[in-house]
Structures are given as structure tokens and as C-alpha cells.
């Protein structure tokens, strides 16, 4: 039997990719902002409905560079409920992460918990649109405006997400995407920074290329974080299939909802009507009235070759390099700690078959709590 993972990375057939490789072999430009790189930037900016996009070799280097581009220093308020890269890039920039608790309905940073964490050293907020569910961007922006803070969204999950027909990537000072193989849209590895100002794009572009402004001028201590031509070409091919892929994801989401909503102790997530979602994950919350604990369900799934993922467990704040920060204390992050114990992400990807999905659904159904029949005595 084949293993079923939470995601599957290939949207396009191999033969569509071959002509692109032939072109690279002909023109011999392998990297440094070649033709496919330029084409992917233009095509993605239009597809996503954003002003400027700077491509990167991965999302982590894009986050690292976004913090450099805005010269963020001191303390940064962020969420503990994310992939470790969100906080790791703060440490790599010599910044102090300050963890704020999350909203249980969205798993995103709770805007009501931000202001109490602001100190004279705070310079930025780094929220995550977790599972592609939009943060409360209006409230976060009004806090940032009141306190003079920058906002950089880790939008690694939010490719293509819109609110009231506006790209979620247009909020905050910068947004960062990941095109890792596990994401909705991938370039094997890859990432991007979204910005609205051409001068900022130019600054980011030289920061990702060692700080070179031109052949002989180095204007900043840049890094090498460029996307290469093979990645960019793959992105162009994948992009042709993204709409079909998103439609399949929605279909799979709806089928899960139809069956799982009827199961006691299994809670699914919804997005508001105004959100055009991308269905990147299918998180369920395994409640105490279900027949198994979250970890038992996670382990039992393996017996039918299903490899679900506990995104995000453990919390970033509980890893050894973060535990010592005052804001990482479990008692200060009660919601995040509770959610991290209950969440499980189920397989969702365009070529997940209905048969495999029903196998997953039926397994969840079979493990519901057996309630004792209560006999009523006369
Ligand atoms: C995937 C991911 C990243 C890292 O992106 P890479 O492209 O793998 O470097 C950062 N933040 C979040 C929330 C992610 O899910």
C-alpha cells in the first residue's frame, strides 16, 4: 500500500517542464535574474494582484532579508504558533522574539495581546497568516500605526488568499511567501517578498545579491538568496495548473466538512465569507469527547499508512533556544499551548483521490467514542 502524506508537490506533468530546461541549456543563463526569473516575477505579481515581488531561493532567506530591509532591531512581537523559521530568522538577525498568545478561532496572533507586550525596544510585529487564514490586519495595522512599529507578515501559507477581492499580501510593510515543496505553490524550494514600493524592491533585490548595486558598487552587507532559473522555470509551469489545483483543494475541503461535521469531538476550521481561501491545510481539533486523543489518532493513522502532521506542535516557545525568554512561559500562552495539543492536519492536495480521502474519513468515524446505551428502568 502507498503512504498518504499531508501534501503532494507536483501540479504539472514532467513533459511540460522539458522545453523550459532545453531553453536554459540553450541560453546558458542559470541564475542571477535570468529570463525565467524575470518572467516569474511579472507573472506572479499579476496573478497575486500585488505591486512588486522579489523572488528568493527559499522563504526563510526571504524572511531574514525582509527584517534586514526594514532595519528591524530590538524586540519583535510574534506568534509561538508557527513553523520555527518565523522565530529563527529573528534570532539570526540578533532580534529578541516576544511571543503573544493566539486567537483559538483562527490560530493567528491575538491583536488584543499585542499592546501589553510593547516596550521601548519594540520595533516590529511579525504575525503569521496561519493555515492561510487571514490575520486581523486592520487591528494589527492600527496598533502598528499608534506605536510606530513595522509589520512583516509571514505569509508562507497565504499564496493567493484574498479578503474582499484584495490580496492579503498587500497588508503590512512587507509580506513573505514560501514556495517550499510542501506549500500550495512550490518551486522545489523558493520564496518571495511582496512590497508596494519600487525603491523597496530595489533595496531587497540588492540585499539578496551580496549588496551589489552594479558591477563595481556594493552598497550593503547583502546575502546570496537568489532564486535560480530551474526553480523559476518550474514555477512558471506549476503556475499554469494552480487554479485547477486550488479548485481540487476546495472540493476535498468540502468533502471533509460534509462528513467530519457530523462527528462528535472533531472540529474543523472555517473562514469568513469575505475570504477567498487557498485550502493549504486541513486542520482538525481533536476534542476530549472524541474516542482517541490527538496523539493516539496521529499514531493510529500510521497503521493505515496515513501520515498526518501536528502543525504546530511543539510550539516554537517550547524549543530549548526560546524557552528562556520571559514571554515563552507556558502560563503566558495558555491558548497556544492548548491548541498545540489538539490540532492535527489531514492530507489535502489536488491529486488526493476520493477513495483515499474516504479511507481517512471512515477511519476517523470508526474511532469515535462508544457511548454506553443507557437503560431506563421502569
Ligand atoms: C514553510 C514555512 C516557512 C519557511 O519557508 P521555507 O521556504 O521552507 O524556508 C516559514 N514560515 C512558515 C509559517 C512556514 O510554514
UniProtKB/TrEMBL annotation:
**GO biological process per UniProt:** polysaccharide biosynthetic process
Q: Which InterPro entries match?
A: DegT/StrS_aminotransferase, PyrdxlP-dep_Trfase, PyrdxlP-dep_Trfase_major
| Entry keywords, A to Z | Aminotransferase, Pyridoxal phosphate, Transferase
Modified residues annotated as N6-(pyridoxal phosphate)lysine in this record: 183
Catalytic residue list: 183 (proton acceptor)
**Which Pfam families does the entry mention?**
DegT_DnrJ_EryC1
Q: Name one GO molecular function term.
A: pyridoxal phosphate binding
Q: Which domain of life is it from?
A: Bacteria
Asked if the keyword Transferase belongs to this entry, the reply reads yes
Q: What family, per the record?
A: Belongs to the DegT/DnrJ/EryC1 family.
Q: What is this protein called?
A: Aminotransferase
Amino acid at each position: 500500500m502507498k503512504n498518504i502524506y499531508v501534501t503532494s508537490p507536483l501540479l504539472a506533468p514532467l513533459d511540460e517542464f522539458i522545453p523550459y530546461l532545453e531553453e536554459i541549456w540553450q541560453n546558458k543563463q542559470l541564475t542571477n535574474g535570468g529570463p525565467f526569473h524575470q518572467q516569474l516575477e511579472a507573472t506572479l505579481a499579476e496573478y497575486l494582484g500585488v505591486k512588486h515581488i522579489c523572488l528568493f531561493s527559499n522563504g526563510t532567506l526571504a524572511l531574514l532579508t525582509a527584517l534586514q530591509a526594514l532595519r528591524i532591531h530590538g524586540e519583535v512581537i510574534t506568534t509561538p504558533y508557527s513553523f520555527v523559521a518565523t522565530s529563527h530568522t529573528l534570532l539570526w538577525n540578533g532580534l529578541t522574539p516576544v511571543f503573544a498568545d493566539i486567537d483559538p478561532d483562527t490560530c493567528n496572533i491575538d491583536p488584543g495581546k499585542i499592546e501589553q507586550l510593547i516596550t521601548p525596544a519594540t520595533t516590529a510585529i511579525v504575525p503569521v497568516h496561519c493555515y492561510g487564514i487571514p490575520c486581523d490586519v486592520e487591528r494589527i495595522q492600527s496598533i502598528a500605526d499608534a506605536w510606530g512599529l513595522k509589520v512583516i507578515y509571514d505569509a508562507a501559507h497565504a499564496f493567493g488568499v484574498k479578503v474582499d477581492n484584495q490580496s492579503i499580501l498587500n497588508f503590512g510593510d512587507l509580506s513573505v511567501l514560501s514556495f517550499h515543496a510542501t506549500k500550495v505553490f512550490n518551486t522545489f524550494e523558493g520564496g518571495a517578498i511582496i512590497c508596494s514600493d519600487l525603491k523597496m524592491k530595489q533595496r531587497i533585490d540588492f540585499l539578496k545579491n551580496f549588496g551589489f548595486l552594479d558591477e563595481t558598487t556594493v552598497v550593503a552587507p547583502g546575502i546570496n538568496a537568489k532564486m535560480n532559473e530551474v526553480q523559476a522555470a518550474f514555477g512558471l509551469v506549476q503556475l499554469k495548473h494552480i487554479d485547477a489545483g486550488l479548485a481540487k483543494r476546495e472540493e476535498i475541503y468540502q468533502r471533509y466538512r460534509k462528513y467530519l461535521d457530523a462527528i462528535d469531538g472533531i472540529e474543523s476550521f472555517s473562514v469568513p465569507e469575505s475570504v477567498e481561501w487557498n485550502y493549504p491545510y486541513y486542520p482538525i481539533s481533536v476534542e476530549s469527547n472524541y474516542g482517541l486523543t490527538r496523539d493516539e489518532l496521529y499514531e493510529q493513522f500510521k497503521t493505515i499508512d496515513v501520515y498526518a502532521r501536528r502543525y504546530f506542535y511543539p510550539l516554537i516557545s517550547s524549543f530549548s533556544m526560546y524557552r528562556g525568554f520571559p514571554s515563552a512561559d507556558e502560563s503566558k500562552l495558555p491558548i497556544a499551548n492548548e491548541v498545540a495539543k489538539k490540532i492535527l492536519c489531514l492530507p489535502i492536495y489536488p491529486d488526493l483521490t476520493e477513495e483515499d480521502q474516504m479511507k481517512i474519513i471512515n477511519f476517523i468515524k470508526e474511532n469515535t467514542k462508544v457511548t454506553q446505551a443507557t437503560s431506563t428502568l421502569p
